Amino acid sequence: MGDLMDEGSISTIQQFHSYVKRLSSIFNIEYPVVQIWLPGDNDIGGENEPVSKQKAAEFDKVFDQPSVITFKNLTFFKVNGITYTFPKRTEEVDETNINIVVSHYPITSRTVFSTQLIKEFHPNIFFCAHEHESKYVKQNKDLTHRNTHNFGYGEGILNISLNEDNLYEIYVPTCSYRMGTSKIGFGAAIFNDNNHHMKYTVFWSPTRFPYLLFYLAVMIFLLWYFILFCVAKLIHRHPKIVKSSSDSQPLLERI
Q1: Whole-prediction pTM value?
Q2: Where are the alpha helices (DSSP H) in 104-208?
Q3: In 3D, which of 94, 145, 87, 142 has the Cα closest to residue 114?
Q4: Closest Cα to residue 101, out of 134, 67, 71?
Q5: What are the Calcineurin-like phosphoesterase domain coordinates in residue numbering (predicted)?
Q6: What is the pLDDT, as a whole number, of residue 106?
Q7: What order of strands is seen across the sheet that includes strand 135-140?
Q8: Which pLDDT score is estimated for 112?
């Protein structure tokens, strides 16, 4: 869903390739399943800096695959919401397939662009990322009456009927601690009932911030313990000084 690399948009080509190698060591790119790779703004730019044509071309070269991918009776259309580009529908696509639009940037909030996509692909559902939050948008198919719903911890399973008059856009959360969000996870969707029904949920990863705070508290405690231990040891080894002045003599001896 994009943002596959931390600083791919501002890296050199050599660094870009090293990020790709690291990614392939985490996710088995050679695993025999259908994989769909999308560029994000962290990969090719487009958010706080211009889109790098060099990185966009390199991304397409490294992750070489068609823009329309069909698996059984599911058709995925790879849309680039950063550059506002999308593939053309081919005659090879079965009209009875479930059409899924996948993009890094949210799509349905961009009325003109999403209207073009709806006319071209007749999508049953949209998947996006970018915001690193888990939520979904439910709206009419004419993109009116938009309602955004959070989909966080404990939400269970989201059941969606693809035959209803509503159109959904699922925001998949980030699965990387590098993004700095407290909640990360992996989105998972299952199509059943002859692909007329979809179930979606998020497999949440353990949150790291409580553990980081715990480690910080332990380190502070150990540091203070070490300091107090060293001070106590120095005091214990310091020779006692016997004062000879009258102030140090007992009161009865002064009389």
Answers
A1: 0.80
A2: 111-121
A3: 142
A4: 67
A5: 2-133
A6: 94
A7: 68-71, 74-78, 98-102, 125-128, 166-171, 135-140, 147-150
A8: 92
Q: How far is CA 243 from CA 94, 127, 235, 249, 253, in A?
A: 101, 82, 18, 9, 15
**pLDDT tens, position by position, 48-107:** 788 888 888 999 998 889 999 998 889 999 999 989 999 987 767 787 889 999 999 999
Q: For the CA atoms of the chain, what is the radius of gyration?
A: 29
Conformational region of residue 43, where left means phi above 0, alpha means psi within -120 to 50, and beta covers everything else? alpha
The C-alpha torsion from 137 through 140 and 142 to 143, rounded to 10°, is -20
Amino acid at 55: K
Pair 47, 70: CB distance under 8 Å:
no
- CB-CB neighbours of 26 under 10 Å: 10
Return the bridge partners of 35, or none. none
- The letter for the amino acid at 26 is I
Residue 50: predicted pLDDT: 85
Structural contact between residues 3 and 43, judged by C-beta atoms closer than 8 angstroms:
yes
Domain boundaries, the chain: 8-204, 209-254
Q: Which two tokens stand for residue 41?
A: 């703004």
Please enumerate in sequence order all residues whose Cβ is within 8 A of that of 179, keeping only pairs 6 or more positions apart, or say none: 3, 132
Instruction: List the chain residues with pLDDT less than 70.
Output: 29, 91, 238-255
Handedness of CA 57, 63, 65, 66 (dihedral sign): negative
Q: What is the pLDDT, as a whole number, of residue 165?
A: 87
